[in-house]
Amino acid sequence: ARYARTCFEAFDGLVKYWLTFNEINILLHSPFSGAGLVFAPDEHHEQVKYQAAHHELVASALVTKIAHEINPRNQIGCMLAGGNFYPWSCKPEDVWAALQKDRENLFFIDVQARGAYPAYAARVFREKGVEIVMAEGDSELLRHTVDFISFSYYASRCASAEMNEQNSSAANVVKSLTNPHLARSAWGWGIDPLGLRITMNMMYDRYQKPLFLVENGLGAHDEINASGEIADDYRISYLQQHIRAMGEAIADGVPVMGYTTWGCIDLVAASTGEMSKRYGFVYVDRDDHGNGTLNRLRKKSFWWYQRVIASNGRDLDF
Fold this sequence. Notes:
Elements: H1 2-10, E1 17-19, H2 31-35, H3 45-70, E2 75-81, E3 85-87, H4 92-114, H5 120-128, H6 138-141, E4 148-152, E5 157-159, E6 169-171, E7 174-176, E8 183-184, E9 190-191, H7 193-207, E10 211-215, H8 233-251, E11 256-259, E12 282-284, E13 296-298, H9 300-310
Parallel strand pairs: 1-2, 2-4, 3-5, 4-10, 10-11
Antiparallel strand pairs: 6-7, 8-9, 12-13
Helix pairs in contact: 1-3, 7-8
């Protein structure tokens, strides 16, 4: 809260839009990278994760309260690692498994957007043996809800009642079955632009708050060709399809505040620790072992996205 207040005061009038926690739901899937959690040998993992989540949710609400007090024009958002779970089949057990997986990811946003723990959480906590310890005033603080919902979207996911360690893989850290109906990236992530439209419609139906897509991109191997250029048409195609899908969601009636890609410049991929998994419009001469000059080179996608920005998304051709 002290850190946030310092930022709100230092940048008052300069910054209007703020996010409290990045991809807050990753805490459940990757506790260390998502929340810095390290478990003692005898600790109850689920208890520790959900108690930590409670502290984050209270902190987020407190920061939202402070932001609005400092300047009522401040807009505060939460941030979700987004992407719906599809049922593996129309078998009711698979549909239920997908619903449970969606609830697991949306649990945090349900609290941040609605101001209280969702009804389904009571049974989840009971069956997991979790008992949330609340300080006096926590419930009142949680009522300070966010102004908008921000999220990342890279891929959709699949779930079935028979999911296990052998038949599922970590797509964007979150475990998922491989969808046979989708093309996949070099790292096995399903490419699903329609899934973005589905996700956006679901979230607006659920929360009735404006959406902000703050991460969307394709991790790929980029090679410099004989002309000294990087013709990353595959990245352009991915972004083009997803921006069009976002446009369809807007036409569906979903209010969208903005769109930002991941990312503008190559950096180490958080999910794998590789430099070779590149997302940027600007190439950086560095390999997975730390070798390279760090020289920069603008890719074909750089010039394409420059036109996209200038046209506010109307010019998507390449």
